[in-house]
Structure formats: structure tokens, C-alpha cells
Amino acid sequence: MKRQIEIFTANCPVCDPVVQMVNDLVCDNCEVTTYDLVKQCEDKTCLSKVEEYGVKRLPAIAVNGKLLDCCQISAPTKESLVAAGIGK
């Protein structure tokens, strides 16, 4: 089963390295969707997901529909992404 990874970003110098880190870690079992909240998305799915997941800070990452714990208190790290199963 594919692991669904959703990245929420403001397309800024703080977010861009995290997006790159996720993209560097992903494997064949990972499906990545990036939501640029500055541009938003046509159908506003990105905004409903922000509300659903409780995103309060950017960048933020959700795996299989759940916001990672690290994204609730600090920026995501490589270790927290690997612990969430990204790249496995």
C-alpha cells in the first residue's frame, strides 16, 4: 500500500529545504502531494486539509492523513520523517 505524504508549504526559504528533504527521502511506496498555501489550489482541498489536520505552522507534513507530531511543535527533521516511515 502506498504511503500518502502531504506537504503544506508557503513556498518560502524556510519551507523549501523541508520540501526538498522529503523529496530526497521518498521511495517507491511514497506518494507525495505538495500544497502551496500561498497559491492555494483550485478546488480549495488544501484549505480543508489544513483545517482537518489542524495545521498551525508551516512547513507541515501529514502522513496517511495524520499531521506529524513534530509539525505541531517545531519544524520537521530528517529523523522525524524517517520515524514516520518516509523512505521505507
From TrEMBL:
Coiled-coil ranges from the UniProt annotation: none
Pfam families (UniProt xref): Thioredoxin_3
Domain of life: Bacteria
Residue ranges occupied by any Thioredoxin-like fold domain in the UniProt entry: 4-67
Gene3D superfamilies, alphabetized: Glutaredoxin (3.40.30.10)
InterPro entries xref list: Thioredoxin-like_fold, Thioredoxin-like_sf
SUPFAM superfamilies: Thioredoxin-like
Protein name: Thioredoxin-like fold domain-containing protein
Organism listed in the record: Echinicola rosea
